[in-house]
Structure formats: structure tokens, C-alpha cells
Structure prediction request, 383 residues.
Amino acid sequence: MSIGKPADLDIASTLPGSPGGVFMRRFWIAVHRSEDLAPGDAKPIRIMGENYTLYRGRSGRAQLIASQCPHRWAPMHLGWIEDDDIRCVYHGWKFDCSGQCVDQPAEEPGFARKVRIDTWPTQEYLGLVWGYFGEGDAPAFPPFPHRETEGVIQTWNVEHVPCNYLQSFENSMDEVHVAFTHAPGGSHAKLSADLPLISAEETSWGMMRYGRRKTGLVRQTLHYAPNVTRVIVPPVAGMEGVGGWPEIYFSFTPVDDENHIWFITSHVEVKAAEMEAYRAQRGKYEAALAQARPSGEVAADILRGRGKYADTRHPDLAIVQDIAVQAGQGRIADRQHERLGRSDAGIIAWRKILLRELRIINEGGTPKTWTRPPDDVKPTLGF
Prediction:
């Protein structure tokens, strides 16, 4: 079975002007972790093959603007923040949050109102900064709901992965891999006891995937268009028995066609009486993580043969394992020559959806209007 890409349509590309790029830019995209952007900070970021400046004003407002000043193209992230405005380091031109130039120290009065810098809608949700890069009005925000039960919402370390985003998004649709990829180290041992039968169906907001086990229980996983997966997973090593199994929100954000970023937020159900014990255990996990090498570096060493996959230990072992497997497929996976099977039902379903939407865009048609997911459709553990 082969559901790949036709010669004239690249489902992996999100570069400007490509059908995939047009598709992705119709949605809110996670671009940065909120806690890593302090008031007064300005940073360069690259999303879907284009460069931007992200800064946070003194009021706490985050803003996305063009990477370069429209005067003589100096990098805007080199400048400094004044209230909620940003001033270019080259000649002192200052722009407000709307992109309007409001001060030009060496120019004639009135010239500033003729100059603007490009800006993009920017919002924050689940500990992340989100941007909208498409045409017209941005979709409703937040782009999807989250668990509202008592608990703790936490953002994970940001992972930079040296391959195309679609490889990781498709991996999140592959429930069977956990019995093998994550078996070394035992982080997902319970999920390997009974391999599920996978099915999937398109929804108004993305795709619902089901993993039915011999017990009759069904694990329900939500894949929000265009690149977010919402799923319940086992606790990381050392956090078992403290709080419930976390609900995870994975955002796979393209940097360009050969690199992407994982932004991960988890919601763990923790009752008030358990909070002290949870925070103490969480502190131990975070201390171990701070002492460990970055997940990407460990995965890169495994791929170079500088350590055995099965012998690797790490506080975020599942992350290391997934990065190694996804990056190990190459910068852009060869979908033309792979052999998909029954367990790949979710991947096959999503590729059909993606191919359909990209063909419509490529032919100048009207693509599907996606809706915001309803609050009452949630993932289930099914184990």
C-alpha cells in the first residue's frame, strides 16, 4: 500500500507560495515558548522558511513583525523595546505594535506616518506564543480547547528536530510504534501489552484516530489541522503514581522544509491534596533533566553510532527515541518508496486529506473551511 505524493505536488513543503505553505498559513501556528520571551526581549525566529522578529513589550504583549527594518534592512531583533514599541538599532526608527513608524530622529516631521513595518496577529495560549501568517482575518482563538479539570499545565523543553515536520506529525498518528520504539527503557510498557487496531475519520476540525484493543477499549486521539496532536500518554519516568496520566498537546512547527520544532504542553490532573507531593516529584524530574544532555544531542549521537539505542537512558527518553527515529528517516522522508500497512491507517487517512486540500489550492479552488474543535470532544486513554 502506498499513499505518497504525486510528482507535481509536495505534501511535505510549507515554503511560501507552495500549496502546503498556503494550507498551513490558514491556521494559528505555535512559534515560541512564552516563558522564554521576557518583557523587553526581541528574538529572531524562522517559521515555514521565512524570517520574523518576535518581541515582548513592557506591558507583556508579544508581537510578531518583519525581520528587517523597512529603512535599510537592518535586523529588527538587534533593536530595543520602548514601552510596547520597538526601535531599530541602525537609525533609531521606532514602530508601534500596529507596525506604524512613530519616530524617525533624523528625518523630516511627517515622514514617519508614511512608513510601516509588516506585522502578524499574535496571541498566547497553553504557555506558547502563536502567530497567524495567512491572508485575511485570523481564525478564532484559541485554535482548540484544553482539559479544564483540576491540575497543572506545564510546557516542556523546546525540541529542535532536524527533519521535516510531517514526519513527526505522522509519527503522532502511529499508535503501534510505541510498543517497539519506546520499549527500551519501559516508558510505554503498558501500551505494548495489546497492539491496537487503528482506524481514523475526518472531522470538521481535523482527524479523529481510534486504537481499538482486544479488550474492546478504544484509545481516542485528536489531530487538529494542520499540525497539532492532543493525546493522553504515560507519565515520564519518575512521575508515575503522582497525579494522573498527562494530556499532551504537541505542536509540530516547520522552521523550513528540513527542520522543525516541537512545542509541547501537558495538563496533569492533580488534586489539591496531592499538589505538594506532585511538585516535589516534579522538582526531582526537572533537576535530573537540567543535568542531562539535550535530547537532540543524545539522539544525534545514537544516529552516528556513538551509543546503543536500547542502552540509552535519559529523563525524556521517549523524546530522544522519537527524535532519533524521525531524524533517522532523513531530512525529508522518501514517501514514494515506503510500504504502508494496516497499522498506518491514521497516516493514510491524513495524507488523503492533505493531498485533497493541496490539490484544491494548487488548482485555484476553494479549500475546506475548518472549524474550531468543540469542547466536548476529548482524547481517551483506552487502556
Remarks:
- Residues 345-362 form the longest helix (18 residues).
- The chain has two domains: 36-132, 152-362.
- The radius of gyration is 22 Å.
